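Q: Given only this backbone (125 positions), what sequence would you predict?
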């Protein structure tokens, strides 16, 4: 019971701080989410591809622009540049979004989680 109460107050703190950061995203929290949910498939180093392409410098990078990575035809057909907004809709539903066919990942349903991850991705420069 004590544990539940402790957890509940922790959750309240987390909610309060995410409300403060809403929209901006918290890079430290995003790094945490990244290591739990993205890192298996993505490195953050230049030139290191895993199952997915490296995400170094992804914010502002042209879509499907890593030359030695074999993108899906749908991703290759994209001509834009990754903005925070595009990343947000991709990560919300990678398989449903027009880009996503090869990324076998269910996505991040929480808007604040996505904002945090995108804030972290923005530090990879
Ligand atoms: C199960 C493996 C897997 C997981 C987990 C995963 N990805 Fe991916 N990701 C891929 C693959 C594969 C592609 C290439 C998609 C394609 O070509 O259609 C990709 C592509 C991408 C791209 C486009 C890259 C480019 O060069 O245009 C971004 C951005 C991205 N992932 C972000 C993320 C983020 C952020 C997470 C975690 C929240 C994540 N991915 C989780 C496998 C994964």
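A: Predicted residues:
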């Amino acid at each position: 019971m004590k544990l539940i109460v402790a957890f509940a107050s922790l959750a309240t703190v987390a909610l309060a701080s995410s409300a403060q950061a809403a929209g901006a995203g918290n890079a430290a929290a995003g790094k945490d989410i990244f290591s739990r949910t993205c890192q298996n498939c993505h490195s953050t180093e230049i030139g290191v591809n895993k199952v997915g392409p490296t995400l170094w410098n992804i914010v502002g990078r042209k879509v499907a622009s890593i030359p030695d990575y074999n993108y899906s035809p749908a991703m290759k057909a994209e001509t834009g540049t990754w903005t925070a907004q595009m990343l947000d809709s991709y990560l919300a539903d990678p398989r449903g979004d027009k880009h996503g066919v090869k990324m076998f990942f269910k996505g991040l349903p929480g808007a604040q989680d996505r904002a945090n991850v995108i804030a972290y991705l923005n530090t990879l420069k």
